Amino acid sequence: MKIKWGILSTARIARTQFIPAIDRAENAEVVAIASRNNKVHNIARELNIPRAYESYEALLNDPDIDAVYIPLPNHLHKEWAISAIQKGKHVLSEKPATLTAEEATEIKEALISSPVKYMEGFMYQFHPQHERVKEIIASGEIGTVKQFNSSFSFHLGDRENSIKMQKEYGGGSLYDVGCYPIHAARMILGSEPIELQAFSLNDQDSGVDLTTSTFMKFAGNVIAKTESSIDMANRDEYEIIGTKGIVKVPHAFRPDKVGGVGTVIVEKDNEIRKEKFSGDIYRLEVEHFSSAILNDGTVSYTIDDTINNMKVMDACWDSIKTGRSVNIK
Amino acid sequence: MKIKWGILSTARIARTQFIPAIDRAENAEVVAIASRNNKVHNIARELNIPRAYESYEALLNDPDIDAVYIPLPNHLHKEWAISAIQKGKHVLSEKPATLTAEEATEIKEALISSPVKYMEGFMYQFHPQHERVKEIIASGEIGTVKQFNSSFSFHLGDRENSIKMQKEYGGGSLYDVGCYPIHAARMILGSEPIELQAFSLNDQDSGVDLTTSTFMKFAGNVIAKTESSIDMANRDEYEIIGTKGIVKVPHAFRPDKVGGVGTVIVEKDNEIRKEKFSGDIYRLEVEHFSSAILNDGTVSYTIDDTINNMKVMDACWDSIKTGRSVNIK
């Protein structure tokens, strides 16, 4: 049996990544796409999607649809996630789930009285390279873990026409890519940060953050540093530094850009070992979520995880504003 | 003609690195070594050094000595540099030159009324890989420079017997290795930081910083981040991130540990180019300083540069203490 998906908007990521991934998935199919623009009919035809709706409401009212994918601009994620939940549709939302932890808590409240599943779409976490990293750490090969570093950056060319430069739409680097290194720090260290300092360089005209860096303390004096930028060359990497060695993952978030092949590098003294792992991250994400629906299973990344990730991002904004260290509760 | 060197102390770095480098240098020779311990005679014999003194004063009184190398514990650098200058000896001091910018200014004052040359020994800067990095940046290949990142770390095993764990001796990671990434940020960006935030994790018993991170703003919204640690696996690297590409130098500070071969890696999109350069850093340092004496030339790293580097380190301690951003004047 296949989960029937509806897509809320014709965003580029839906057209180029998510819809093709549903086509590749074994337990999913796309049945409808919605847009507020009547070009949706052409797009549906091009992508072989049977139904096209000229409003998100119309799609949510289609009784044949099991699950929706939300790739809308960031500031609309909460509203349409809650609408979909209320219509009994399972929801896979693009990151960031919301703009604040408080908004994510509103989604949690909507879920309490609903049987549907909800997941924030950090597709990268489904790549097998991360399980291997956790295994290497657990084996003790790199000694005691002392620090996690991660950067996700790209250089935004066409700024004038980008919603990433619109502050009111949840623009800027932290919302766009900064949520990934924060997610990865929490996932790899397996705990939540206690204290955080963050710094941004803002675009003068739009006020969005072009580059944001964080310095986080975890229990046991473990440090995590993250960085996001929409103003620098491509990086999507993390590394874990132990007392005896280092594990590096150079294609942590977008292994799809290098053919799905992730590389895990272990450096000890001057010896370097590379291990390669293949994974189709968007397809794995679709299959994971569809399977959780089909088998009434738990999603691997829950709304509580989302709330915790948003709490860290809230703390970033707080620290950036005050110029001080912020405790995270 | 060869510069006649005297060595102030039998420190490990003198025995294993600096004295052999003088032996390899074309314009230098070691004529004396001093220690407050009478084992100095055995050490002199082992290292084929003609004269051995049981006090630093005695060595400084030897009229045949042109220049001295100071590898004493950090808190003694200033005192013995000034004594040597007053005795008319040229001074190459191990880093950090002093413990504060104010102390470095005392050395500058001693130099005003003296014809001798003084240099803080950041040996790594003499490796040709750094000139190549500057060329690549100047060529525009990586676009506009946005950020400089650098880490220098190692895991200190025998803490009980290490002066690196003695606070009053200038112990801890920032004095020991943190001065290098700060130096490298200033050297590569070719300017001085304006503002800085720093964070440390301190050892509970000794109070020394095990790990110190900095976040620095340079003119034009260029960022530099540095890190030092005596509590993590080996790293001695820097990278420069531009709008179009990245330059990485994985053996920035200790290429001698990998046979003197430095690697400059340029990453653009998914293309990676590696260039290799050989350099004998300690020998190049000895030859540079000896040549400046022989030809009455200028040393490439002046006391003013040293004062500027120490100002950044002063700002680190200040920010660590207050938990706030610090302006650097």
Descriptive report:
A 9-stranded mixed beta sheet of chain A has the order 14-13-12-11-7-10-9-8-15. In chain A, helix 4 runs parallel beside helix 5 (101-112) and helix 7 (173-189) packs across helix 9. Chain A is 33% helix and 30% strand. The longest helix of chain A is centred in the C-terminal third of the chain and has 20 residues, at 303-322. The first copy, chain A, has 9 helices and 15 strands. The interface between A and B is large, with 36 and 36 residues. Chains A, B: InterPro entries: Gfo/Idh/MocA-like_OxRdtase_N (IPR000683), Gfo/Idh/MocA_domain (IPR050984), GFO_IDH_MocA-like_dom (IPR055170), NAD(P)-bd_dom_sf (IPR036291). Chains A, B: Keywords: Oxidoreductase. Chains A, B: GO terms for molecular function: nucleotide binding; oxidoreductase activity. Chains A, B: This is Oxidoreductase.
Describe how the helices and strands are arranged.
The structure is a homodimer of 329-residue chains.
Chain A: E1 3-8, H1 12-24, E2 28-34, H2 40-46, E3 51-53, H3 56-60, E4 67-70, H4 77-86, E5 90-94, H5 101-112, E6 118-121, H6 129-139, E7 145-155, H7 173-189, E8 195-202, E9 209-218, E10 222-229, E11 231-242, E12 246-249, E13 261-268, E14 271-278, H8 281-294, H9 303-322, E15 326-327
Helix pairs in contact in A: 1-8, 4-5, 5-9, 7-9
